[in-house]
Amino acid sequence: MDQADGELSLLKILLELFVMLVLANGAPVVAARLFRRKWAAPVDGGRLWSDGRRVLGKSKTWRGLAAGSLSCALFSWAVGLGFMFGLLFGALGLLGDLLSSFTKRRMGLDSSARAVGLDQVPESLLPMILAVFWGLATWWGLVVLVLIFTVANILFSPLLYQLGIRRHPH
């Protein structure tokens, strides 16, 4: 394999990983639209933290975790990265999203409140760390993809809101 083929292969994998980041975060939104209240049990079970606020919030559901993880697993399997890698990648992306929600609740922010960086970095960083240790990405690839995902999320969320796909403009 020459250098051009190697670079093309690296770009292909980074594109696939980017698609998986989008799937992990987008599939729960699509599942909520399709199934409405069905299987919408909140991950935190409605529990409150010691500060009197919800642990995560009502929009973080088991249905969303399943949808995001499975969509990544199926895509990953289809492109040859493996079902288990995709399942773990999606689950880590959603774990990052749960950590963001937990942090936002502790800061007194509503689930729909905008928190630039906090809303994007954990959900892209955690799965990309897996990709590095799985041998699919480099540390530089991780940095680039986290930055691209963050910028894309900030730029495209208002558009998705205008199209009626998202409930909030961020």
TrEMBL record:
It comes from the Bacteria. InterPro entries: CarS (IPR032690). Pfam families: CarS-like (PF01864). Keywords: Membrane, Transmembrane, Transmembrane helix. The keyword Transmembrane applies. The chain crosses the membrane at residues 13-35, 64-95, 128-161. This is CDP-archaeol synthase. It comes from Marinobacter suaedae.
